[in-house]
Amino acid sequence: MIAGVYLFILVPLASAVVLFFLRRLQFITAIMAASMAGVLGVGAFWLPLDRAVELGGRQVALGEPVTLLGRQLVMTAANRVELAAIFLMAAALFLLGARLGSGQLFFPLGMAVTGLLSAALVIRPFVFSALFLTIAALMATILFQSSGQTRGAFRYLVLMTLALPAFMIANWMIDSYQYNPTDAALPRSIMLALAGGFALLLGVVPFHIWIRPSVEESSPVAAAFVLTVSNSVNWFLLLDVLQEYPWLVAQQDIFRILQLLGLLTAAVGAVLAFSSSDFSHVMGYGVVADYGCTLVALGTRTSAGLSAVMLATVARPASLAVLALGIALARERLGSSRFEKLAGQGWSNPWTTAALTAGGFSLAGIPPLAGFVGRWAQTRVLATAMPWYFIAVLGATLGVAAGALRGMDYLLQPPPESVMSPADRTRAREPRLMIVLVVLSLLLALAFGLFPGMIESAMRAVVSSYTFISTP
Amino acid sequence: MPTLTDILARLAVVPTTVALLGLAATAGLLVAVTDWRASVLALAVQYVLSGLLLTRVIRPEIAAIKTLTGAMICVVLYITARRAGWGRLPLAASPDEEEPSRFMLVLILGLPFRIMAALMGLALAYSAALQMPLTNVPLEVSFGVFTLGLMGIFGIAMADEPFKGGLGLLTVVTGFDLFYSSVEQSLTIVGFMGVVNFMIALAISYLATAHPAPVPEHEESGS
After folding, report:
1. For chain B, which has fewer Cβ within 10 Å, the N-terminal or C-terminal residue?
2. Running DSSP on this structure, what letter comes out for residue A453?
3. Residues 6+ apart with CB under 8 A from A156
4. Does position B196 have pLDDT exceeding 60, yes or no?
């Protein structure tokens, strides 16, 4: 019998090796990586957790716990949905990467990172999750670098590595606390270590400094991969830690700290997104603002708040995929994604314009696009419970939307006057495959925004499996 | 032929004070010096000295493994630095222009500022180790941890490219490892920390190779 957890760790790692050797055949490796990630994503949803099924003549038991080097690998009901989410996100981004010049190493490294992230999700205790996350982040550092600019990648490397000591110290103190439960100082120190570690991992202000340069310097799809696939696992790990140590939630006001950090992050992200002069800055700071709003919603410690976190985590990739497509098209055709360089280009590049503005608005949470689902859930939770925080989240939405709107204003300026021959005009048209990708991603973003019910049952299953939110 | 464990066991007679002073000196060098050869050499000596300190709190075999991992990291960084051409300085704007004097070069590289920063870091580490000694570890290890941690952070903050910054990051991780190995001696963790250290070195190598190395302006214009 094969334990299901192995499938989600070893298959991506093994296929990463194969993809590495085939990396020159970029289109083929993209399709292979997308198919593999897609199959694993669907498998995580489809395979039953409580019994074994036969696959290719072998019994596969998804929920079978495994012990490896004395550590347990367990797949819970929440983990399976989370795994499905990260593999499906990765599959979609691999498909986009086939056309968007994401670099030869994107597919093998992306698969390896996804396998390591799966291991981080299912291994216990959490110190090993932190170790796997760090190794995955070190690999992802290479994804971030594509143009000889290394500022963002290096900052990411430093901040993700510095999170590891915080988690290891927290784990050591948790072990000590089990032997000294009367020590009143330990829970506070544990809470501070964990809050510090997660602040580093989640890109909370002031540890957001890697996000903007990374988006600016790397391929937009690679940036979207790290900002969605890798980052969502950080969120899931935070929820798992809160679930695993209920005394930490009960005794320490960790939610208050997370909420204050979220508030600061949302405000800073919104202001910086508003003052952006480049669509890659809108993407970077828009994500920062979104992370902040999500933390504020989690801080309410309600099931509605947790649902808002989940919806935002699932909707974010759809928004970022559209915006990444737009930025990639702008860089490819116009040489830059800076507002001033795009002035008047909206008329001759309508699909690029559509992707840039719709992606920006979706990230801001403007209806009826994907980002609205998460933002609407957040505002509903906060409007009744914490009106001041509601205003902050609304401000974050407006700040990011205003940044995208300023970009749109440049794009829709009167076009520069030029005499073009019919042949030049044909060459200047946007590539058909890119148009198809833009249309598909826009439809996906609209579908998420208009029919959020299609992911509701899966979200409900995840939310109901976390009991820490009902702890008094 | 003596094994690495034997060598470490023989070196264990080195007084702790000497090992600590050596750690402070190497960490200070990593902050103050911009030359890659001196930096990689300082890092290698730092790994040996932290291995020596570790023999006071963990089994010499495990300390030897950590030192060996450090040595491998230094080899990776040495090869990277050579290939990436670090250490070449943009000395003169053109072949006709006179190269700056040694004194000017010291000022251009910000050596006085770096030395001041390193001394300040050492003073901070010393007072932190005395004022807030770490629980469950001897005072000398506390001093080593604070020295490496603070100097590593200074190194990262003052670096303007991934190679030097990476050496700072590795110094921080070595400092943390010195503390964590004293309180948690699981072999699995030792193995994982080795992998993490090695992966950091590989990531630094990749970024250092990708980062454009400083090229003398006359060479740049000539090519």
Report:
1. N
2. G
3. A137, A140, A141, A144, A210, A214, A226
4. yes
What DSSP letter does each residue of A31-93 carry, written as one string? HHHHHHHHHHHHHHHHS-SSS-EEETTEEEETT--EEETTEEE---HHHHHHHHHHHHHHHHH
Q: Name residue, tokens 């991506």.
A: A12
Give the span between the Cα atoms of A247 and A186, in whole angstroms: 12
H or E element in which residue B172 lies = helix B162-183
Cβ pair B23, B44 in contact under 8 A: no
CB within 8 Å of A363: residues ≥ 6 apart: A282, A283, A286, A287, A290, A316, A319, A320, A323, A371, A400, A404
ipTM score for this prediction: 0.90
Contact (Cβ atoms closer than 8 angstroms) between residue A294 and residue A235: yes
Q: Which of B80, B154, B181, B183 to mutate to test the interface with A (most CBs of A within 10 A)?
A: B183
Q: Is the pLDDT of residue B89 over 70?
A: no
| Rounded Cα gap, residues A239 and A308, in angstroms | 13
- Residues of B with CB below 8 A from A112's CB? none
Cβ-based burial of A376 (10 A; exposed 0-12, middle 13-18, buried ≥19): middle
The predicted pLDDT at position A111 comes to 95
Q: From the DSSP assignment, how many helices (H) and strands (E) are in chain A? A: 20, 6
Torsion of CA B7, B12, B14, B16, to 10 degrees: 140
- Put residue A149 in one of left, alpha, beta given phi > 0 → left and psi -120 to 50 → alpha: beta
pLDDT at B8: 67
> Residue B145 to residues A22, A368, B27, B126, B201: CA-CA distances in angstroms?
44, 53, 11, 10, 20
Judged by CB atoms within 8 Å, which residues 23-82 of B form the interface with A? none
pLDDT band, residue A148 (cuts 50/70/90): confident
Question: Which of B184, B202, B211 is closest, CB to CB, to A148?
Answer: B211
Rounded to the nearest 10°, the torsion over CA A339, A343, A347, A352 is -20
Question: Which of B165, B176, B202 lies closest to A165 in CB terms?
Answer: B176
**Residue A426: both structure tokens together:** 């044909």
Edge-to-edge order in the sheet of strand A123-124:
A66-68, A71-73, A123-124
pLDDT of residue B90: 47
In one-letter notation, the amino acid at residue B60 is P
Over residues A164-194, the pLDDT tens digits come to 999 999 999 998 888 888 888 888 899 999 9
Question: What pLDDT score does B92 carry?
Answer: 47
User: Quick check: A150 and B200 CB within 8 A?
Assistant: no
| C-alpha distance across the termini of chain B, in Å | 51
The whole model's pTM is what?
0.92
Q: How far apart are CA A85 and CA A87, in angstroms?
A: 6
Instruction: Please name the residues between 46 and 75 in chain A that touch chain B, using a CB distance below 8 Å.
Output: 69-71
Alpha-carbon distance A345 to A412, whole Å?
7
pLDDT tens-digit series, residues A321-374 = 999 999 999 998 888 899 999 998 888 889 999 999 999 999 999 999 999 999
> Do B30 and B151 touch, CB atoms closer than 8 A?
yes
